[in-house]
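Exercise 3.2. Students should predict the tertiary structure of the chain below and write it as structure tokens, then compare their answer with the key that follows.

Predict this chain's 3D structure.
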Amino acid sequence: MRGVVFMGDRQVELMSFPDPTPGAGEVVLEMKASGMCGSDLKHYRRPKGVRQQSGIPAASGPVIAGHEPCGVVAAIGPGVDPRHAQVGQRVMVHHYQGCTSCGHCRTGWQQLCQKTAVKVYGNNSHGGHANYMCVPANTLVPLDEALTFKAGAAISCGTGTAYGALRRMNVSGNDTIAIFGQGPVGLSATQLAAAMGARVIALDISPQRLERARAFGAAETINPSNADAVAAIRDLTHGLGAELTLDTSASPEARIQAIRALKVWGTCCFVGEGNEVTIDVSPDMLRRQATVIASWTFSSIGQAECAQFIIDRGIKVDELFTESWKLDQAEEAYRLFDQQSSGKGVFLL
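Answer key:
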């Protein structure tokens, strides 16, 4: 089979790999859709020869990229409970594996495992940008017939991450939420928060992304490159600030704006990876009773809940995707995605 590998310095290569065979407790998926995620770009851009990501053991050889996998079970290894996987079943993958037995793993949070080195598919273990993918059966999340494989790919990281953050903040129809960054995760958050009944204020420096945010349910949009974001949010909230803010951009400037745009007793959530933020604790947090939380992706249970929420509300997740690609177009696909001016891409197999 063939798989997309990040070589470093913005180079990708379509390499040949042996077709996988499932071992004990494993399944092989025939891939149908594999989404492109903004967090892929740090691997795409990394210097050649550097494989290590902070806190995650490096792989010993070339690794197939892609951590938004969705496909059909093609083969089942020994010991797999037929209640968990059957040939022909449509599935997503929760793209982590820990020890499987600690408290975090048993509650679906394998990425938080404290007992073993966590496998992250598409990072230090083969991912979904390939014809086939071998994973433990315990990482599978069923994909309902009501959802396309493209929707399943989105839910497997970007959309699922947005859903997990919104659930942590208990978004409701009483809330105004300001969402900083309208890339794939931010746009998913705009779409989902609007479906939860919240009034969404979308922020981005790209006019094209702000236009998409409006189409996805944002009540108001702000371009921080030509407006004071905090002042603009206060103007839209009777001078009080937003009950909730969510930063998906990882920009230090956006993060402090997200905190300062909060209403008294408000909650700010960070999901964007990397970078730093400097907080003046007393005026920014303490004297406004602010809550600042972080949300890292989602559990396998949360992934299934996200899928059901999308089905029940009839949310058009497929519209997140602006480009569809084949594996042999990977170089062009990531060159475009690296510009961060388009929407979300997906490999269809």
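Discussion points: The longest strand covers residues 26-35. The chain has a mean pLDDT of 95.
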